[in-house]
User: Fold this.
Amino acid sequence: MNNELIKEFVNTLIKNNLTISTVESFTGGLAASSIVSIPHASNIYKGGVVVYNKETKSLLLGIDINYFDNVDVVSKKCCETLLNKGYEKFKTDIVIAFTGNAGPLVDKNSLSQENSKVGLVYIGIKYKNTIIIDEIYKPMMERNELREYAVEQVFEKILKIFKKSE
Assistant:
């Protein structure tokens, strides 16, 4: 992970007096761990959840388990739901969410072949009632490389938002 990027990210949120929470699936808590690795992160980070499968998404976020009969866990729609449920739970200024398939196997439980691909991820940001979700497809990246890449992409995207507003 790019420690300078993480440091800049945390310090930017501190400077802007903003709070953040995380909802992570395939990243397995990497975003949360990255944030809290920086001193004074407790000023901005309220908490997060790792919801690695449908059952924990249902149990910890209150998503009806039947929701997944119609929505793939690796999808833009699911990422949006994770963002909204994260906001309901943590009430932070910013919520970030991650869902995807880091491999090495195709997801056989996926509702569509399109959403089962290894290397397909969705990264989301909710800030001031605006939701931004990006699809990333990196089939050649190794599992942990993809996890790190997704987290860094969210941090960079948030930093760009604040650099534009300066």
Notes: The radius of gyration is 15 Å. Strands lie at 20-24, 45-50, 94-100, 120-127, 130-137. The chain has a mean pLDDT of 93.
